[in-house]
C-alpha cells in the first residue's frame, strides 16, 4: 500500500498580527519580497524530493499567515513549477487560506484558474465589535461578501473558519454567528473554540472569556445546530457536509505522509525501510530567505510511533483501522498489545477483529489513554 503524500506550504506574513494567534506569521510592514519567497519554496521542495520516493501529490494546503497576500499570478507560477518537480494525483485537492479583505477576495477567481479547488476563509465572527476585539482587519460585510464570492465561483469546496468562546460572548451571540455561517451553506465549516496561547498578546493580557457553563452551552447547542443543518463532525472542530471532508487534514490524522515547505513548516515522510523521518524548516523568514531551509531532520524513535499514530487517529470521530496501523507504522499488533489491553480494561476503547473504537470515556480521558502508549 502506498502511503498518500500531501504537501503543506507555509506563507509567513499577515497585514497585522491578531492578538490570539500563535501561528508563525510576521507583519508585512517589513516589505516581504513575495516573488523571491516563491523561488525559495521551490528550492526547498527540490531539496526534500529525495524523501518522497517517486510518489505523486495527494493534496496541497497553502496556509499561513495569510497566503492570499500572494497574487494569483504568483500562486499560478508556484503551482505550475511544483507540478514540474513532482506529479499531482488526478483528483488532487488544492486549498488556499484567505483573509476576507476585499483586495484579497478579488483574487479568488485567479486562484481557481491557477488550479486551487478549495478556499478556506478566516471569518472568525460576523459581529463588528467581536472583529475589533480580535484585531481583525476586515468588516462583517467583507466577510459575507468573501464567503458568497467563494460560493458563486462554484469551486469543489470552500471552508469558513469561525471561532467561538470569544471575550464577553453570550451563547446567543455565538449561535448567531454560526447561523449566519450556515445560511451561506459552506460545504465545510471549522468551528474553533478560542484558546489563549502563551506567546500572544491575549496570553500576556488575557481577556475575560465566557465561563465553563456558557462554553458548554455554546458547544452543545452549536453542535446540534450544525447536525440539524446536515453537517457531520469528523474532528473536534471540523464539520463537513457528506463527501466534503478536507482530504489534506484527513491525511495528517490518518498518519499519512506530508512534505512541509516554507518558514516553520514540518513534514513527515515514511521511507522504504520503514523509518519515519520528520523535517522542520527554519521559522524566521530572514534565515529562510538566506537559503537556510532546514532547521532539523530526525528519525522518529520506534517506541514513539504508536503514540504518534494514535494521537492523530483519535482526533477523528471514526473507528481506527488495525490494518492502517500496520501499514502506516510498519509495526505489528503484538507491539501494542499491552497498552491496548490496558485501554480496553480502563474503558477507553473497545475493539473487534478489524477496528478499535474510542468510547465516550476514551474521548474524555484522551490524554490518559495516549499516555498508555508512551509507557509501552
Ligand atoms: C492560520 S489561521 C487562518 C488564516 C488566515 N490568516 C485568517 O486568519 O483568516 C487558521 C485559523 O485558526 C484559527 N485560530 C487561530 N488562532 C486560534 C486560537 N488561538 N484559538 C482558536 N482558533 C484559532 C482561526 O479560526 C484561523 O482562521
Ligand atoms: C487545521 S487545518 C486548517 C483547517 C481549515 N480551517 C480548513 O479546513 O481548511 C491546516 C492544515 O495545515 C497544516 N499545517 C498547519 N501548520 C503547519 C506547519 N507548520 N507544518 C505543516 N503543516 C501545517 C495542519 O496540520 C492542517 O492539516
Ligand atoms: S489569525 Fe490569520 S491573519 Fe491573524 S495573525 Fe493568525 S494567521 Fe495572521
From TrEMBL:
SMART domains linked to this entry: Elp3
GO molecular function: 4 iron, 4 sulfur cluster binding; coproporphyrinogen oxidase activity; metal ion binding
NCBIfam families according to UniProt: hemN_rel (TIGR00539)
Similarity annotation: Belongs to the anaerobic coproporphyrinogen-III oxidase family. HemW subfamily.
Function: Probably acts as a heme chaperone, transferring heme to an unknown acceptor. Binds one molecule of heme per monomer, possibly covalently. Binds 1 [4Fe-4S] cluster. The cluster is coordinated with 3 cysteines and an exchangeable S-adenosyl-L-methionine.
Protein name: Heme chaperone HemW
Keywords: 4Fe-4S, Chaperone, Cytoplasm, Heme, Iron, Iron-sulfur, Metal-binding, Oxidoreductase, S-adenosyl-L-methionine
Keyword Magnesium: no
Domain Radical SAM core: 1-232
Cofactor: [4Fe-4S] cluster
GO CC annotation, single: cytoplasm
Organism expressing this protein natively: Frischella perrara
Primary localization: cytoplasm
The UniProt record lists the keyword Signal: no
Location(s) in or outside the cell: Cytoplasm
GO biological process, any: porphyrin-containing compound biosynthetic process
Pfam families found in the cross-reference section: HemN_C, Radical_SAM
